[in-house]
Amino acid sequence: MDIKGRTVFVAGATSGLGLGVARCFAGRGANVVIVGRRRELAEQLAGEFGEAAIGVGADIADTEQVAAAIQAALNRFRTIDINVNTAGVQGYVPLVGPQGPTDVADFARMWSTNVVGTFNVMSRAAAVMLNNEPDKDGERGVIINTSSVAGEDGTAGMLGYAATKAALIGMTLPAAREFAGRGIRVNTIVAGGFDTPILDVTGREAAAGQIQFFANPRRLGTAEEFASLAAHIVENGFFNAATPRLDAGYRVPL
To answer: Which of 77, 161, 179, 214 is an active site residue?
Structure first.
């Protein structure tokens, strides 16, 4: 799918990987829908992008807010061709914490955003894409989700986060098969070791300590590198039902 002239709906686009995707796709001539919880920031960023962008505030776990965001995209650009989901939360959710059993509500909150929220956006975006006119290759749309290396080799204390990211990997093939013959491709990037604002919460020093476990290059990845792979997935029509790792050969140690 040619990115130029298409409309991309980016959930989690007000910072980090999502903002990198928004900038990359805008630079390639796409209309961009910047979606994030902070409406004012989303609108401010869209203003910097110009007329080919809008900013919408939405909590992806809220059905009505996502429906409103989808409608805003349709009102402005008439359709959605590409959906990239980078919104998510990270945190310490073990089975047993310092005070005893972990409150299941902590796990539920993480699951609600990372899994239910992503499903919510995927479902509504795909419903729009199915009404698109197919291109010469029969393609109507592309969905890209964002998992984490924790979903494949998570370490102690990351059980909650790892479970949500493993779920996104597990959703990829059945989603792609659901749209077999109907022109929608679904892929999930399994990302690890990126320099994004979430490190300000989880700890930049801890992240720096993990670089020794990278194969090459031994540095944190950039949002631009993530966006470059997302763009390639969109443009390569044979790329489907895949979960490529983008992590410099990193494997999470025990």
So the answer is: 161
